[in-house]
Amino acid sequence: MLTGCEPWPEEIARSYREAGYWAGQTLGEALRGWAARGGDRTAVVSRDRRVSYRELDEWVDRLAAGFHAREIGAGDRVVVQLPNTPEFIAVCFALFRLGAVPVFALPAHRASEITHLCRLTDAVAYLVPALHRGYDHRLLARQVRLAVPGVRQVFVAGEPGEFVALADVDAAGTALPAASGGLAEPDPADVAFFLLSGGTTALPKLVPRTHDDFLYQARAASAVCGLNQDSVYLAALPAAFNFAWGCPGVLGTLHAGGTVVLARSASPDECFTLIERERVTITSVVPTVAQLWLDAVEWNRRDLSSLRVLQIGGAKLHRELAERVQPALGCRLQQVLGMAEGLICFTREDYSAEEVLTTQGHPLSPADEIRVVDEHGRDAPDGELGELLTRGPYTIRGYYRAPEHNATAFTEDGFYRTGDLVRRTAAGRIVVDGRIKDLVNRCGEKVSASEVEGHLLAHPRVAQAAVVPAPHPELGEQICAFVVPSGEAPSLVELRRLLLDRGLAAYKLPDRLDVVVALPVTGLGKVDKKVLAADALRRVEADQ
Ligand code: J2J
């Protein structure tokens, strides 16, 4: 396995293989099988392009050959920051075929996140769109190259400026025989790609996912959702987000022989148009997007009758919203509790209506092991709140290059500490009821409090800073910054500008600023985030 990653213990890995969970196939090989079956059927659709299974497979081979000709090879890390376009899928599979390892950045990431990802992974290349949502990613690429000279090449989907056009990589590939012809197939047990954790640390952690574990996840999720070749999945969220990538998402749909439709944004305008045009049957959204959609059906008269399932996950879904799904959209609701680190729980078709509305379901795999433990690590009885711990055939055993953090994020016997507070019902359903990890879940995007605090402290007149969540009617949670100033307090606008200048993604900027004379501390002298969160809630309510 790639150095810096934590493999499953040999005996457990063997048991996953013997049980058939790990099929010993790479993602690149899997696509060959899907293409052989899918032929001229449509694999991927975007606003202006349709790609058949056969075309996708050939495109991937050409790109693989083109990357190979540009000296990208097995084990090389490549930061991929592309919006939902067919290129994103083709590039990832091309890298999989070479045994190179894509690192999934989100389109909203900026210099702070991207330079960190490039440094942490020793990336040799960086892939960007030319322009996305009015932002010129070539400017960002210039900054990144200056900061991290190890990034030897930048590839651009679109007009490349001084960099290399992805179209040229494609063209270069035609001169070579099929990429896999001369290249060794990567080891299915090795890392296929890195997902970003919804982490709590000042610098985001990376989640190494193997071919074996992820193909299993996608296959099993596809089966749970009953996908087949008539299924049409709409990727409304960024495809680089685990939810849209493999729960069952893009990979589960391709595995089933269905069609993946790529939306550039989750806006009701764009998504409803695509649902109507492509007869979409299933899609996945976070609760804030679900709310937008449910409000929009009142005035947007698109035909959404093809939609069979709306998956909602990524953040707490309130019952009132859950109840509106079926009447407004005429489709079934499926709640999903997932995480980049692995474990996914789904509500199932045979659940009672009440269970679908109020629980986050049960684990995908019979081999998923779940514990709900109290603060002393003892198993909590059903119905009582505790931290969710998990291990299983698609849950990682450690973050990449993070031995110290891994020592606390995982138990000695390999359970991942999710930081989620849950209870288990007598029927074995999981209900998420809070969290003990230090982050803000804003529109399903996880914002690490300590990451934002670190940047706030860079302001010369900020002596202390603490970030906590508070409820927000549209965002789910908002980012509240408490600041102890030294001298004249900076304004919220000033702090937001500073964070943007420091290259932080815009979704991480504080929504509120409260200036205080001191931060509350616990008996151990740490900032008391519970007291602060309660204080934030009071202030938010007082302002309404
Ligand atoms: C409450 N909290 C939830 C839910 C995730 C599918 C769906 C979501 C993610 C995801 C994902 C929740 N109710 N239904 O990767 O494959 C919070 C929990 C969890 C954290 C993980 C997938 N569903 N959460 O959201 O890695 O706190 O993955 O630990 O971004 O989101 O965040 P992330």
TrEMBL record:
InterPro entries in UniProt: AMP-bd_C, AMP-bd_C_sf, AMP-dep_synth/lig_dom, ATP-dep_AMP-bd_enzyme
Q: Where is the AMP-dependent synthetase/ligase domain?
A: 33-400
- Residue ranges of domain AMP-binding enzyme C-terminal in the record: 451-526
According to the lineage, what is the superkingdom?
A: Bacteria
Keyword terms of this UniProt record: Ligase
**MF terms in GO:** acid-thiol ligase activity
**Among its keywords, does the record have RNA-binding?**
no
Q: What is this protein called?
A: 2,3-dihydroxybenzoate-AMP ligase
Q: Which organism is it from?
A: Goodfellowiella coeruleoviolacea
The organism's taxonomy opens as: Bacteria, Bacillati, Actinomycetota, Actinomycetes, Pseudonocardiales
